[in-house]
Write a structure and sequence with these properties.
The protein is of the alpha+beta class and about 210 residues long. The protein has five helices and eleven strands; from the N terminus they run E-E-E-E-E-H-H-E-H-E-H-E-E-E-H-E. It has a single domain, classed as 3-Layer(aba) Sandwich (Glutaredoxin), CATH 3.40.30. The protein has a five-stranded mixed beta sheet. Strands 1-2 form a two-stranded antiparallel sheet.
């Protein structure tokens, strides 16, 4: 397994208080989070202990995300992994007034109209969860095991393009990581550089 160590802290200043997040690493515990889903229910990382978890950062207006959803590619991956026992959580970190921001009602409409297989959709308009995970782009993926350890993080595949034609023959890093994980094998490529639209975070005391 290849590991990438990111030896730095992510600092976010919120209401005059500086909060430090340890940058996520493969082989280390995933950052704990507390979020709210589209049903208004609190969601914590700890709720999923004992189950493999997929975190997907998404923005329905991003051309790179649209490639995967309008082709049905993301839904096929979601269905495959959830049927094999994964919990899939989509995270929307777009801030109000920025590309990809949605209300709970709008997010639920997108889930239903696109045939999405996500178990939960978290609305992270403050960007706290996204920043804790160092999420930079949409889409961006994390595979977290039953003990809340990150096993894969990065791009969904090796085609950093918004063109649907690039799906043909693409190397899907998430599916590769999942297959190795399920088989109890080492994940050959455990960290990749994510691609897509930048996450549309809010500005917090100069942090963008």
């Amino acid at each position: 397994m290849r590991f990438l160590t990111l030896a730095f802290l992510i600092f976010v200043t919120l209401s005059g208080v500086s909060v430090a997040f340890a940058a996520p690493e493969v082989g280390a515990k995933a950052p704990e989070f507390i979020g709210v889903d589209t049903n208004g229910e609190q969601v914590r990382l700890a709720d999923f202990a004992g189950k493999p978890l997929i975190l997907e950062w998404t923005n329905h207006q991003c051309p790179y995300v649209r490639k995967h959803y309008e082709s049905g590619n993301m839904q096929r991956i979601q269905r495959h992994l959830t049927e094999e026992g994964a919990v899939w959580i989509s995270v929307i970190s777009s801030a109000p007034g920025k590309q990809g921001f949605v209300t709970a009602k709008e997010a639920d409409f997108l889930t239903a109209s696109r045939g999405v297989y996500a178990d939960r959709v978290i609305l992270d308009s403050s960007g706290i969860i996204g920043r804790a995970y160092g999420a930079k782009t949409t889409p961006q993926m994390f595979l977290i095991d039953e003990e809340s350890v990150i096993r894969y993080m990065g791009a969904i595949d090796d085609q950093p393009s918004s063109r649907r034609a690039t799906l043909d023959g693409a190397r899907n890093y998430l599916l590769e990581a999942w297959s190795a994980f399920k088989a109890g094998e080492s994940i050959e490529v455990a960290v990749t550089k994510p691609y897509g639209c930048t996450v549309k975070y809010s500005s917090i005391d100069g942090y963008k």
